[in-house]
From TrEMBL:
Signal peptide: none annotated. This is Anthranilate phosphoribosyltransferase. GO terms for molecular function: glycosyltransferase activity; GMP synthase activity. It comes from the Eukaryota. GO terms for cellular component: cytosol. SUPFAM superfamilies: Nucleoside phosphorylase/phosphoribosyltransferase catalytic domain. Gene3D superfamilies: Nucleoside phosphorylase/phosphoribosyltransferase catalytic domain (3.40.1030.10). Coiled coil: none annotated. Keywords: Glycosyltransferase, Transferase. The keyword rRNA processing does not apply.
Length: 588
């Protein structure tokens, strides 16, 4: 039994709460959830009591070892122990070369020799299982090398050190690597200099692989694919069956090469649409919630590693005045493996295994008004990629597309909000939102590429690219959806949000450094009305999103911000969050 034990949740009335005691959370070594001191009240008339401390006798009875129990205070502890770890030497190299034409950093001679020696020793069976180079890593690495040789500018093509390492090791590698890897490394038999016929003649081992190999020849040459071609491959290959590669119909090396290759070539709009829409029908048509307004939040699935993540608490605030919010994500996702909404909800005792129908019920419930769904429950095909995504190191195209999902629809207006980091992805994200047919869309370059706008001063060292707090979006001027409106009926905008313009004092963003409990502590303290940087960020991100999306009652920014403050100071937002934790268990 390796799963984190679910805490027992109960609510009871007690007489008094002092907000300055909120930081008196305590943790025992084997504790799996927050423990609130019993004399402090969490919100009006309610106390969160978590009974999840495991003593050694209980662990023995359950057959658990200490290694089976996660430390829920650290985001990295949510990584499944069943996932095989990648080889770190190759992973470090992938971080340098499995990226774009201007971001790639060629390997030095010393680095290249170390990498190719590692690949050779692994292929010859000289490395222990825990240090072996995976097929997914080989596919991603050699795809990157091939694309750099075929399509990248001179500055990011092979370095002299890489050329020397290849000339030294390839004659040895070609004897021990499987045909699919040799194909990826030299698809036309012209790159490595030996004139091998394996790459040109390779077709794959089944119909699915034949289709994938044909597409890969185009991708490895730096080319692009059509919408139907990408979507067809995704539907053929997914879900991956990691434990039984033969039954999945495709080798991980080929599919890893496909994923990283499309990202390195910078996906076209039609390719991104294919990733975004490929599995819309996996659970059938989405349910329709009877709410007047619904905002879909697309946070990066791999979470935050440094700064306070505010979206869960923002959703509780906005739900207080009828702006329903649907969040989605995963418990843990590479490459960052940071703090996610699912970790926080699970840590606080909420049910994180809800279906879209459950989410619809929570959205319609006046005591809640927001919901979270896990990719594990709604897109099992894409969820099966987590292990491969760790081994390819860099984010694949699906990392962009998964943020623009619509697991529940609304009878009223719909909006989408998504975070981005790399310049050039703001317009594709907005394009996907319009394709979804929502009335309003917003992309935010928040801290760490997430959605949280900050109140800190802009760094003077920023010299290129969009700054943090850059926003771009559109809003319809009528009830018509994006499908139905033209450019005249839609208002487009872009701006850099300066929090000082709205009366906020500049403050540094609270650090969480992968601590789930610290992120929760900051959010709950703010929802209790404790003024400070976390409080300001929740208010800023609630009020500004309301205004930019054109929500009712938010035409004036000051009024929108005051409405968010009132939702917190009245205790309503905290009550919404606590109600979510309680009611989510009634829906399982």
């Amino acid at each position: 039994m390796k799963a984190l034990l679910n805490p027992e949740l109960s609510f009871s009335s007690i007489s008094q709460f002092h907000t300055n005691k909120l930081r008196n959370f305590t943790h025992s070594p084997n504790q799996t959830s927050l423990r609130f001191p019993s004399k402090y009240r969490i919100g009006k008339g309610a106390c969160l009591v978590v009974k999840a401390a495991l003593d050694s006798s209980i662990m023995d009875q359950l057959g658990l070892s200490e290694s089976d129990i996660r430390n829920p205070s650290v985001s990295t502890s949510y990584r499944s122990s069943e996932l095989p770890k990648p080889n770190q030497t190759l992973l470090d190299a992938q971080a340098r070369v499995c990226t774009g034409p201007t971001q790639t950093r060629p390997l030095s001679e010393e680095q290249a020799f170390k990498v190719f020696d590692t690949i050779l020793r692994s292929a010859k069976g000289e490395l222990n299982d825990e240090y072996k180079v995976s097929r997914a890593q080989l596919g991603a690495f050699f795809a990157a090398m091939t694309i750099r040789a075929n399509a990248f500018p001179e500055a990011t093509q092979w370095s002299e050190g890489e050329k020397l390492a290849i000339n030294t090791f390839w004659p040895l590698l070609v004897r021990v690597l499987p045909p699919d890897i040799i194909f990826i490394a030299d698809p036309e038999g012209s790159i490595m200099g030996l004139g091998s016929s394996i790459g040109p003649q390779y077709v794959g081992n089944c119909a699915t692989e034949m289709r994938l190999v044909g597409a890969l020849r185009e991708v490895l040459a730096g080319g692009h694919l059509g919408y139907e071609e990408v979507q067809g491959i995704l539907r053929d290959v997914l879900p991956l069956k990691v434990d039984d590669e033969e039954s999945s119909g495709v080798s991980e090396s080929l599919f890893s090469a496909f994923l990283i290759g499309q990202r390195m070539n910078r996906e076209t709009d039609r390719e991104l649409k294919a990733y975004c829409l490929a599995f819309d029908d996996e659970l059938g048509p989405p349910p329709v919630a009877d709410v007047r307004s619904l905002t879909h939040y697309g946070e990066p699935y791999d979470g935050n590693t440094r700064y306070f993540r505010s979206t869960l608490f923002v959703a509780a605030v906005r739900s207080c005045y009828g702006e329903s919010c649907l969040l989605h994500g995963v418990e843990w996702m590479p490459p960052k493996g940071g703090i996610t909404e699912e970790q926080m909800l699970k840590f606080m005792g909420a049910n994180t295994s809800l279906s879209p129908l459950h989410a619809k019920d929570l959205l319609e419930d006046e005591e809640v008004g927001f919901a979270y769904v896990s990719q594990r429950e709604v897109h099992t095909s894409l969820y099966s990629l987590i292990g491969v995504r760790e081994h390819i190191k860099k984010r694949p195209p699906v990392a962009t597309a998964e943020k623009i999902q619509q697991f529940v629809k609304a009878r009223g207006k719909e909006a989408m909000v998504a975070g981005f980091y790399h310049d050039g992805y703001e317009e594709p994200l907005l394009m996907l939102m319009k394709r979804r047919g929502v009335h309003s869309g917003l992309v935010v370059k928040g801290e760490e590429g997430a959605l949280s706008m900050t109140t800190r001063l802009r760094s003077a060292s920023i010299s290129k690219g969009f700054p943090v707090n850059y926003c771009s979006g559109f809003r319809s001027l009528s009830m018509a959806s994006a499908f139905e409106v033209d450019g005249v009926s839609r208002q487009n905008f872009n701006l850099e949000v300066n929090a000082m313009d709205y009366g906020f004092e500049p403050t540094n963003t609270p650090r969480t450094d992968r601590s789930v409990s610290k992120n929760i502590e900051l959010g709950l303290a703010a929802l209790h009305g404790e003024k400070g940087p976390a409080y300001d960020r929740i208010v800023l991100n609630a009020g500004l999103v309301d205004h930019l999306l054109g929500c009712d009652g938010a035409e004036d920014i000051s009024a929108a911000l005051d409405r968010a403050r009132e939702a917190i100071d009245s205790g309503k937002a905290l009550k919404k969050l606590l109600n979510y934790i309680k009611i989510s268990h009634k829906l399982s």
